[in-house]
Structure formats: C-alpha cells, structure tokens
Amino acid sequence: MGLPSRSIHLAACALAAGALLTGLVPASGALAAPVAPTARAAVEDPPTEDMPDDGFDDEHEGEQDDLVGPGGTAAGQRAPGVRAAPVPGRAGDFRLAAGGDLSGLVGRLDAALPKQGLTALMEQANRTAGWEAACGNTSIYGPDLAVNHRVCWAGDDLASTEWVPQAITGVSDAQEDEDWGTSNAEPIAVASYDAKNPGRSDQASGSQNCVQPAASDACNEKGVRVSFFNQATQKYRHVLLVWPYVNSKNNISFDALHASEGTCTGTVTPSCKAQNGIHAGGMVWYGNYLYVADTANGMRVFDLRKIMDLNPDNDADRNDPTPDGLESDVKDKKRIGRQNNVWYSFGYRYVMPQVATLKFTTAQNGGTTAGNQCYATGRPKASFLSLDRTGADHLILGEYCNKNNGGTSNGRVGTYPMSAITAAVEGAPGTVAAADSAFGLPTGGTFNNETLWHKIQGALRYEGTWYFHRSNAYSNGRLLQATPGTVDGTTQLVGNTTILQSSYGPEDLYLAHGRGDGFAPQLWSLSEHAPSASCPGCKRELYSYNMSEVIGDFGS
Questions:
Q1: CA dist 194 to 40, 206, 219, 221, 435, Å?
Q2: Taking the mean position of all CA atoms in its chain, how far away is CA 122?
Q3: 183-218 pLDDT, tens per residue?
Q4: 524-533: per-residue pLDDT in tens?
Q5: What SS3 state is found at 386?
Q6: Please, are residues 95 and 362 in contact by the beta-carbon 8 Å criterion?
Q7: Quick one: which of 225, 243, 542, 553 is 20 to 30 A from 251 by CA?
Q8: Where does residue 91 rank: exposed (0-12), middle (13-18), buried (19+ CB within 10 A)?
Q9: CA 542, 478, 395, 103 torsion: positive or negative?
Q10: Cα radius of gyration (the chain)
Q11: Are 437 and 415 in contact (CB under 8 A)?
Q12: Which of 16-25, 258-267, 545-554 tops mean pLDDT?
C-alpha cells in the first residue's frame, strides 16, 4: 500500500527580502488559550506500525567519517600534483523534480494541531549553550585558523550516541538583510540524525517492541531533529521533523522521517528489515523553507510557518487539548503521531511536517554505493547543501564519497538557481528545478597516503571560489579550496595546493555574510564527534572563522 508522493502545491508567495519575515513570527492565534476537547472519536487509532512504506529509495547512509587513522599532512603542507578532475560534471545529472501534492495532508495537520511561530519558539528556548571560553580547551582545532566564535551543546547533546549533528544553516541563508527577531539574534539551525536504535523493529513483538516498559526510548528510529540557536540569548530548542500520512482509520497522523519504512508486514522474523532514517548531511534555510538533504533521493522541504506545538501551556505533566478535540502527550517518549486518539511526538514539544519533496530524475549508476562509492555520471547523492548569496542566489549540492572503496568519482557538486528551486516547491507536481552548473572534484594530491579530494562533508561557494570540508576520522580534518579553470578545453575545478587544518570531525559549511548586522563575514561549521573510547579528545561544537582570514591563508 502506498502513500501520496511527497510534495505540496502551495500558492505562489514572494521571497523578496522584505517579505521573508512572514514565516518568522507566531501564527495568528498560536498563543491563544487552548480549546476544550470534544468527545473522543468512536474509532481508535492504530499504533504507527500500520504506516505503509513511503516509496523513497533507501541507500547506505554511513557518511560519518570512514576511519583512516590518525596523523596526516602537516599544517600548511602543499599537496603535490593537485589538478582538475579529468571528467567535468554534467548539470543534467542533477535535475530535481517536485513530487506529488502534500497540501491536503499538511492542511489536515494544520487544522488538527496548534501552531507556533519561530520567533516565539526561540523566545521559549529551553537549553542554554556554552559560549566562547565556556566551551573549555580548543584542542579539537588545528593551528592554521583562529576560531572566532564557539558554541557548545548543553547536557546530553554533548555526548549523545543517539543524535549526531551534521548540517548547519542560519539567518544569512534565510534572508539577505539578516533582520530577524531581537538585535544580534542571528539564529543558526543545526540538523542531527538518529544514529542508534538498539533492539528496534518495525513491529510490536516481545523484546523488540519499542513501546514496552522495558525498552529505552532510543529503541525508536526518530529520524531528524533541528536545533534552533539564538546567538543573542545563547539558548536553543529542538524541533522534530515529521512526515504526514493518513492512517488505516482515515485519520491524519505523522511519523518520523525515514528513507524506508521496512519490509515487516506481520510477526517479526529474522529477515524483517527495520526502518531506516535519513542522514540529513546538509541543510539550507531560505525564506520560509528549510531544505534538508536526503542522500538517495534529493531534498525534503519544510515550512517554518507550519511548526506544530504539542505543549502550548509549557506544562509537560498535563496533556493539552488540541483543536481537533483530542489531546497531546509530550511525556511519552516512545510514541509518535496519533495513537488511540492522543497525539505523541517522541517527547518533543515541537514538530515540523514535511511539505514538499524534490527528487532526482536521473537514474542511478549501476555500481554499488554500499561503501560510499560515487560515479562520474548518473544520479548524484545529496550529501551536503549550502547557499551562495554572492551573486544570484544559488543552492549548492554535493556528494560524500570514499574513493578507497572504488567507484569512478571523488565526488561532484552542482548549483541551482534558488528561483528554480522555489518554483519547483511552490509549483505543480513534476515541476523541474534544473542545475545550471556541475563539476567533478579535483584529483591528485594525497593525504594520509590516500586520495586528498574525497570524504567531503560540506562545500560552499563564495565570490566564485569553492571551499570544501574534508573529514579525517578522529583527527583534524582539512579545509580545501578550488577555483574554476580551463583544463583540456573545459571548465573544471582546480584545487589550491595549500590545505588548512580544521576541527576533528568537520561537517557542513555555512556563511554568515554580515550584510545586515555589519559583522565581518563568518565561515561557520560544526564538529560531529562526541568524546568516546576511540576519541577521548573529541568534542561537539559549532564554530566560525573570519572569512577574510580563510581567504588570506589560502593566499587568494
């Protein structure tokens, strides 16, 4: 049994700078007193095990650092022989198209649950981050670049084996003037994926039933959450991303984001495949929309005007009535969606439903991707995303690849006009967003006795020059630079021979351009690894470099 495809036909709305605040304030009535519940529905809802497969492609998502061991090229050492890729990228391989219409499902959720604007959500942020010196020593950073800002997570977010931070974006992506909320708020958003589901299965069966009393709530595959951080208050709040669907009793519900709902149809068996989440390796916040990378498929799209609040009175001990006459429970961390006429959210106060999908239209290359192999042609992988605002606004999409395991490519990057991306999200199903350029990554050069130009975790284009974050297991990663040049008669990316040490476990890249606040442009990233036996010196932090220093250290 299938579901409607994942997209939404929204009314066209302007994304000009002056109009971008529309989705950043509380929705009308969002803070009003909750309505009294009406009589419960006569037919109770089934548990989430009745959710049909969503039809998304499933693919190996192990994009955390492929271990290569400690050490590496010394700081600032030049990697000999770096040159352009022999095969240029093909923009046609990067075509995206809008899926089917999700507006009916999202509309039903909108009517069933109270909403909260992002402004009010941030004002009620419940976790205090460490800032600058409060984050302690700087041992995870290399000597080549001076860290300007540092943010460290609170409590269990520092060391969670369940939630692993990956993607970063912020208000400079969202709007040109950065004029959001209170002075110097400069919100940053970070996506984390659920990496650990011990003992979990799709079906309610004995010890594999995640909702039984003995099971940890970590048993559930919770998908992706986004943490919104306010630089003015240094507080942040988590929001769970969800997928709307209609259950077998014809009631609107939602589930966590999954690449596959598994193959179980009855009793659990050894061959029963459990749910698989998505990696969320990249994210861009643009206008009212949040674009999240889905490796095998393209992008999931969310609307910041559709954040649902399941605990408006901020009292978790008391269930809140919902506009549909039911109630919501945020204390039960083991259930999700509408079950037995109660709304659950794995314990999160806020959920944000997917409103659209942009899916690759090109067929996959026939080679395996089980070891993060990549190919010079065919459908790319959506491993990371960023936004280039230095000319006409463009979305950057690229691949994480492990050339050690084979394949024909170190990876590729493609660029899309944001006008085309927005038109596809707001257009009819099938509307195409075409890439206007694509490149293969440079080749040549070695690092730790392996290929230099692979294992890329994030990429950014700034004033025509490209920057790449290259991971290095439980040691310092590297920041790389490349510039388009003519090689063998074609335009290809030519790598700078200088490489700069970055943090342990470096991930996605985000540029805070400073045009609205007057601050110097900052290149932001984050480290993914929590302290562990494998890496006792690892730490999870957000951090920024002055972009002028980055450019100067590369000599250009």
A1: 33, 23, 10, 6, 30
A2: 19
A3: 678 899 999 999 988 877 655 444 457 787 888 899
A4: 999 999 999 9
A5: strand
A6: yes
A7: 225
A8: middle
A9: negative
A10: 23
A11: yes
A12: 545-554
